[in-house]
Write a structure and sequence with these properties.
There is one protein chain. This protein is mainly β. It has helices at 203-207, 220-223, 347-350, 402-410, and strands at 34-46, 56-59, 64-69, 75-80, 88-94, 100-108, 111-118, 125-132, 138-146, 148-153, 159-164, 179-184, 190-194, 226-231, 237-242, 247-252, 257-263, 266-268, 293-295, 301-306, 309-315, 322-323, 326-327, 329-331, 360-362, 378-380, 385-389, 395-398, 425-433, 436-443, 448-453, 461-467, 472-478, 489-494, 499-507. It starts with 33 loop residues before the first strand and ends with a strand.
Length: 508
């Protein structure tokens, strides 16, 4: 992705994605009978160039969208969508006074919350600044953890949460703890910031299930990098993706404690159902099985409930670490990547560009016997979305290779990305439309999003694919009950071309 915001595209569909965000499980629409397989673009607005439209949030009181714009200045653009077919740029909120760069926005009951990373030193604590959505007046500023990458309100508005990624500097001389900040709105915006140090004793068990801790310091709390948050409909539970670590954390919002860390394991690309197009130099789009594993490494996350069971859905984008002091990624054809001759007897052929040679793998994983060569190959991301049990972290469904194949059928698959995460799922958002749970999946590298019916979490049904602007980052869902048109809307913010596009479904 061009800039992690967070992902996929969040809430309100954040393709963070995930990242605005009050997310799914809106009240079912009793009077609107919409067809979720018929979304069409009805309005569009370009607010700048690269970096101009990352994440958006919607205020139903004023019928405005608030969009992060870091293309030429540090600001939030305010867009009137009282007529969604003619979105209009009204003004901008200048953020230069706050010594921070906006990564994400969220709205609740007339208050806009903005997550800002420090522009003085990215490793310093970040901040959340709150504004009134009608007057744009300053309301409050509070300090949170380093590099708040995504922000969301709980559904009841009591809490503002930030996923604080805590990335290191290039030399790893500074590596702040990854953390989650919980801001208690009713208590004068009091902040509780949680880190993951208490889980360090579980490292061996977590690593055995593909949880990744690897850095020059091997400091557990600092190595955790929270990416994206989703909050349950009852505002009692939050789930946070730990993208670089290949895990998800569960938080009890009543006690304000992290209760569990779920390691996500591997995807097996040797299975025919997971066959992928692995090379950008083979002059073809060819889906084949390979002796390869993939870490899920989700960016955006959303949640929904079916039959009183909580589910979470992830956009499995993948991400490597590339710093001057530490890099964990290499192409298989690199001279330093030596394949075990017993396990890979055809190593020379596999390292060809038209075979596996162009694929990026994690160089800190795969030497299972410690003899200096690779006994297994581990890639970044799973090229899919997945549905997990929210209580246990167990995998319920994975889309396997369907996102890539549907993109090819739709005519948008980019073979130039075959070696590097393919369609690159960035954002996910689940919304209730009528009696159905509908999933939106943002695909950053093919400039599109897909729509699924996930009412049966074990067997989602594909509905449609729609084109977006360049590099969709944020997906926002506006339920019919809050929409200016009294019809459901999806708003897609694309950071590649600075476009904000609005989609609406037909009635049945």
């Amino acid at each position: 992705m061009i800039k992690k915001s967070v992902a996929v595209l969040a809430a309100l569909f954040l393709l963070v994605g995930c990242e605005s965000n009050s997310d799914s499980n809106e009240t079912p629409e009793e009077t609107i009978n919409e067809n979720p397989s018929t979304f069409k673009e009805i309005g569009s607005l370009t607010i700048g160039g690269t970096g101009a439209a990352e994440i958006s949030a919607y205020d139903e009181i004023t019928k405005k969208i608030f969009t992060v714009n870091n293309s030429s200045a540090n600001k939030i653009d305010v867009i009137d969508i009282s007529d969604p077919s003619k979105p209009t740029l009204l003004t901008s909120i200048d953020l230069t006074l706050y010594s921070g760069a906006a990564n994400s926005v969220a709205v609740f009951n007339g208050k806009l919350a903005v997550a800002l990373e420090s522009t003085i030193n990215k490793q310093d604590p970040g901040k959340v600044v709150v504004f009134d959505t009608s007057s744009y007046a300053f309301v409050k500023e509070v300090t949170v953890g380093a590099l708040p990458d995504m922000i969301t309100y709980s559904h009841d508005g009591k809490f503002i949460l930030t996923a604080n990624e805590g990335e290191p500097n290039d030399t790893y001389s500074q590596d702040p703890d990854g953390s989650v900040s919980i801001i208690d709105v009713a208590s004068g915006y009091a902040v509780t910031t949680l880190n993951f140090a208490s889980f360090s004793s579980q490292l061996s068990v977590l690593k055995s299930k593909a949880f990744r801790i690897a850095s020059p310091t091997n400091n557990f709390a600092a190595d955790i990098e929270p990416e994206y948050i989703t909050v349950s409909a009852d505002s009692k539970t939050a789930w946070v993706t730990l993208q670089e670590n290949n895990g998800i954390a569960k938080i009890d919002l009543v006690t304000k404690k992290i209760t569990q860390v779920f390691p996500l394991g591997y995807k097996d690309y040797s299975l025919a159902e997971n066959a992928i197009d692995i090379s950008d130099k083979d002059a073809a789009v060819a889906f084949n099985p390979w002796k390869l594993k993939g870490m899920f490494q989700p960016d955006a996350i959303s949640n929904f409930e079916v039959n009183k069971v909580q589910y979470i859905v992830t956009a499995n984008e993948g991400d490597a670490r590339e710093y001057s002091a530490f890099t964990d990624v290499r192409r298989i054809n690199h001279a330093s990547v030596i394949l075990d001759p017993t396990i890979f007897p055809n190593a020379a052929a596999l390292k060809a560009d038209a075979s596996m040679g162009r694929l990026n793998i994690n160089t800190k994983m795969g030497d299972t016997d410690g003899d200096g060569d690779f006994d297994e190959l581990v890639g970044f991301g799973a090229r899919s979305f997945s549905i997990w049990n929210g209580a246990t972290g167990q995998l319920v469904f994975d889309s396997k290779n369907e996102l890539d194949k549907k993109a090819q059928e739709f005519g948008v698959y980019d073979d130039g990305r075959s070696d590097d995460k393919a369609v690159e799922p960035e954002a996910v958002y689940v919304a209730k439309m009528g009696d159905k749970q509908i999933l939106f999946v943002g695909l950053e590298r093919v400039d599109a999003f897909m729509v699924y019916d996930v009412s049966n979490p074990a067997a989602p049904k594909y509905l449609q694919t729609l084109k977006t602007g360049d590099a969709p980052e944020g997906l926002l869902f506006i339920p019919a009950s809050k929409s200016p048109t009294k019809r459901s809307l999806v708003v897609v913010s694309s950071e590649g071309d600075g476009s904000v596009k609005i989609y609406q479904p037909d009635l049945n």
